[in-house]
User: Which sequence fits this backbone?
């Protein structure tokens, strides 16, 4: 239930209403003042939250009518509000699931709109009363959802689906990845690059379990995805049949929802629900498990079933009110050093975010998942914050008196030591997931809302202000830190290729307009630091789970979704080899993905931690040949594995570059070559990603110098 903090600040909480609260006293409170900042900072320092009362009491309703919060964090019930001027869709209009949180709708209205499919006037190849297989119903359901591309690998329990896909009326394209993990990562890449639901299909048993890592990855990164798996026939479920795994039980904790289809007539409703759940509220993956005999069963589908999601729909947030956001505006007016901390929740609210920051003059820093939501070329951009974020961004957070957290979850790689993160600031947290509000860091003011309608209302309030905001002194203070601590690029030594310089050159030669995917490791952090993103959905990476092998399949998904755009996989040799088989997909599907591999023959990020914290003792982090170490001999013949030869075996053109002077020409050839291309860039393994805040550390612990040349040296200085 939405409730109001002391001082009139709206928040969503799982706490029950404390006794003794005085609604009249709260009504009489004045707008926030600097004194309230002091109170907020004191509350944060003692890790206590302000006292709260329920909003229904403030509206003058008797206590007996107040709906009590459920014990579960997400069980929120709508409270009646005064009608607001929000556009109502036409009764016959299709409403995108992502827009439900921007409209004032009753549960009955939401059920009606959620039951509609994107392609309402679909013409089936079957007569209305003609029986067809469950697999045909499934494929037609996908067609009616507007699906034009899936990532599917066939097997015994999913053959029926593939047979139906070959007869698709709308010509659904299947990108045949060479491993189920490749297909689920490709579906993620498709979804991240478009904001649409990605679809992958696998067979039962090992095919289904190979999707597990991708499903967990999608859940942590809030990626809309529907995964469909074949299952053994219903009579054989639970008998340890060949290729049987209980994939619904296995994935229950790593999906937003999942289904086991036991009745062929339920397929139309389940598919509609799955797509709606995946894309609405906080997006996430949904799994549909379909036994083979259900796929083969004949039925006449009913295409207009009502979704059965009343509980879920009632818990979706409504657009916030102007009085709620007026409190946020009052906090901004009273602050001297505000900062916007924007995450992946802002990717679809980039225009509103830019408008807000430019109207107020408040600087903005992004999380790893939020890169591109605010243009990095803008003077107000503080780039990325966190463990390997900009010193000036982390400085701004550490010295802010007001932290505006939009669409973020206070991840440990951002906060470090929680108690010290933004310890001087009053925190405003706006998020679409009520479970995130107060989960890691207790805010002074929290609003359960989609960030897009919240920013629209806030921008309207800002535009009505007569006095302009002036945070120029604060921005100048941050600018001093920006000039003192830019993202470091090593000085050129001979003709050695520094990985930071290589990515910076790639950014310049592509004008920062490419779609970039990455694996996980040092290359991922260097790409986030040195490739500058001015638009959302051009940055595809595994943030929450940190899945190596993500880069190449994600690039495949992005290229399939946006065929006219340049897609580059910036990868490390360790990550790339984990899904190297997808080079076959590049050739077979004629996808012009460019693979830019920073090859140092080691697990670079683990080596960096070994250098910093384990006295450079190598714990199985060398990936080269045990016979010869290229980093010692510098002999090209000692490079292992030989990505150029492997790539050519998959009929993907490739070359290797070992000298900085040769790099511009090599990048130019890569970009100009039609079709896919692999460029193997040899870099030293001693480079470290800087700056670095050690895990659980604070801003003062930031490491700003040093590398692996002499890891025991005192040169590894902190702030």
Assistant:
């Amino acid at each position: 239930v939405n409730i109001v903090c002391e001082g009139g600040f709206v928040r969503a909480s799982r706490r029950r209403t404390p006794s003794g609260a005085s609604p009249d006293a709260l009504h009489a409170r004045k707008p926030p003042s600097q004194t309230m900042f002091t109170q907020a900072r004191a509350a944060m320092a003692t890790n206590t939250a302000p006292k709260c009362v329920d909003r229904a009491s403030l509206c003058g309703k008797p206590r007996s009518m107040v709906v009590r919060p459920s014990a579960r964090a997400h069980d929120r019930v709508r409270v009646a509000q005064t009608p607001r001027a929000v556009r109502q869709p036409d009764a016959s209009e299709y409403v995108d699931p992502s827009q439900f949180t921007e409209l004032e709708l009753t549960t009955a209205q939401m059920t009606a709109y959620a039951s509609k499919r994107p392609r309402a006037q679909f013409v089936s190849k079957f007569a209305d009363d003609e029986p067809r297989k469950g697999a045909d119903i499934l494929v037609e359901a996908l067609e009616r959802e507007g699906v034009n591309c899936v990532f599917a690998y066939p097997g015994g329990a999913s053959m029926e689906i593939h047979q139906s896909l070959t007869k698709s009326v709308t010509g659904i394209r299947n990108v045949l990845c060479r491993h189920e993990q490749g297909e689920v990562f490709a579906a993620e890449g498709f979804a991240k690059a478009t904001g649409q639901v990605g679809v992958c299909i696998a067979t039962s048993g090992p095919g289904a379990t190979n999707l597990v890592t991708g499903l967990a990855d999608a859940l942590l990164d809030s990626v809309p995805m529907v995964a469909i798996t074949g299952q053994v026939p219903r009579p054989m479920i639970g008998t340890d049949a060949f290729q049987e795994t209980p994939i619904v039980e296995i994935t229950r904790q790593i999906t937003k929802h999942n289904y086991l289809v036991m009745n062929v007539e339920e397929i139309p409703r389940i598919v509609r629900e799955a797509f709606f759940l995946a894309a609405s509220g906080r997006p996430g993956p949904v799994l549909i498990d379909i036994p083979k005999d259900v796929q083969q069963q004949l039925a006449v589908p009913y295409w207009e079933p009502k979704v059965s999601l009343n509980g879920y729909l009632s818990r979706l947030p409504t657009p916030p009110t102007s009085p709620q956001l007026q409190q946020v505006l009052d906090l901004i007016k009273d602050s001297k050093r505000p900062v916007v901390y924007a995450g992946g929740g802002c990717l679809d609210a980039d225009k509103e975010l830019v408008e807000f920051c430019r109207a107020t003059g408040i600087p903005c820093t992004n999380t790893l998942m939020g890169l591109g939501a605010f243009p990095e070329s803008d003077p107000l951009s503080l780039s990325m914050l966190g463990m390997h974020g900009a010193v000036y961004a982390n400085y701004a957070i550490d010295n802010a008196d007001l932290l505006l957290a939009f669409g973020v979850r206070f991840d440990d790689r951002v906060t470090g030591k929680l108690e010290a993160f933004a310890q001087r600031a009053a925190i405003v947290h706006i998020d679409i997931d009520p479970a995130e509000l107060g989960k890691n860091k207790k805010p002074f003011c929290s609003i359960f809302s989609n960030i897009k309608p919240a920013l629209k209302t806030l921008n309207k309030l800002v535009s009505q202000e007569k006095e302009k905001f002036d945070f120029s002194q604060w921005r100048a203070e941050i600018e001093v830190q920006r000039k003192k601590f830019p993202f470091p690029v090593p000085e050129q030594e001979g003709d050695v290729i520094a990985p930071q310089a290589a990515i910076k050159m790639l950014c310049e030669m592509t004008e920062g307009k490419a779609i970039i995917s990455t694996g996980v490791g040092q290359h991922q952090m260097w790409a986030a630091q040195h490739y500058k993103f001015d638009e959302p959905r051009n940055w595809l990476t595994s943030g929450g789970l940190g899945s190596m092998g993500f880069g190449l399949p994600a690039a495949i998904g992005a290229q399939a979704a946006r065929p006219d755009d340049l897609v580059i996989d910036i990868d490390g040799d360790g990550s790339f080899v984990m899904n190297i088989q997808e080079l076959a997909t590049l050739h077979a599907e004629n996808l012009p993905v460019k693979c830019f591999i920073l090859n140092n023959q080691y697990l670079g990020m683990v080596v960096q931690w070994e250098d910093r914290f384990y006295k450079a003792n190598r714990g199985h982090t060398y990936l080269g040949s045990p016979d010869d170490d290229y980093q010692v001999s510098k002999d090209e013949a000692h490079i292992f594995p030989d990505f150029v030869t492997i790539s050519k075996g998959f009929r993907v053109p490739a070359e290797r570059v070992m000298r900085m002077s040769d790099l511009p020409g090599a990048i130019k050839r890569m970009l100009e070559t039609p079709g896919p291309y692999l460029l193997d860039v040899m870099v030293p393994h001693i480079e470290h990603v800087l700056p670095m805040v050690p895990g659980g550390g604070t801003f003062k612990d930031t490491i700003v110098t040093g590398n692996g040349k002499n890891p025991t040296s005192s040169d590894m200085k902190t702030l």
